[in-house]
Amino acid sequence: MSNTLVQSANPKILLVKLSSLGDVLHNLPIVWDLRARLPNAQIDWVVEVGYIHLLTPLLSRDGFQGIDRIIPFGLRRWKKNLLKLSTWKEFFAFKKALQQVSYDVIIETQGLLKSAIVCTLANKNPSTVIAGLANATEFSGYEPIARSFYSQSVQVPTQCHAVDRSRWVMCSALDWPLLERTSVPQFYPNQYIQSLPAPTQALAQQLMAPYVLCFHSTAREAKRWPNSHWIALGQELSSHGYQVVLPWGNLAERAVSEAIASQIPNALVPPAFSIEDAFAVIAGAALTIGVDTGLTHLAAVLNKPTVEIYCDSPLWKTEGYWSSNIRNVGDIQKPPTVAEVRQAATELLH
User: Fold this and answer.
1) Per residue in 259-293, pLDDT tens?
2) DSSP string for residues in 105-169
3) I need a surface site. Which of 63, 77, 162, 319 has the fewest CB within 10 A?
4) Are 204 and 130 contained in the same domain?
């Protein structure tokens, strides 16, 4: 499909990136890459229900062009309730929504069977391009069987940043020259970032500016930074007048937050908050410091002062390279020292 042909046809494009939080965030730039060249394209996105709120700021409205449709996918919930009638009603409602449009281009950047099956369920025409990954990148999930569902399998470097990987697939699907890193990725509209609301009243009453968010938890234990390091860093931040805020996502993580907070003067373990709340809490922070996890990446893509700590995952895979507001410290099997994180924090706080 030539570039000229795509432009003249105002193509209908489907993006398939289902989860998880960080993966969805790092796929956002291709929306703006597409809009820059194809302003009149229809761009829809299939995403897991739990991550819809990451995409709603990109919905086209009032003359603003971003995503035209978000199509919710509930696989995580459906798998737990396969025998319920409501599950099958939801699935067929999803299928109906997916098939309302006949797509010219489908861009699948996850490389998993579940994502590839979504491509198969989508409404297509005989010339539809279905582009997906031909190979795995190191330290990323990949299921080779997914290739059999594509019309175009895209070979990417085995060490490829998540943003760059999505751009490889997109450029191949549309026969465009590969976008280099000099093309700074955009994630959210500037007007949205500038108008982020304050946290909910109940949460705002507990937050004391200036505060520093510390995201210590992550799905894989090896990616965590030692509690003793968080305590030492938190004590120093507190001595300089910053309230240390230690969010959590489950009861085990709350227990860790409470243990760390007990050693830091005036530290706060907030109530659980949603992804929508996270936008506001991050926007109001003087600084976010966190391990390689989705909420740390959210701070980075919002272009807020962020220190990303890498302990057991490679820097090249998700480091925030697009802003002077971001510092990336550590690397795979090379966790940073307290002094290194303190130095990065100091650079961003002054």
Assistant:
1) 999 999 999 999 998 898 999 999 999 999 999 99
2) EEEE-S--HHHHHHHHHSEEEEEEEEEEESSPPTTS---GGGGGG-SEEE---SS--HHHHHHHH
3) 63
4) no
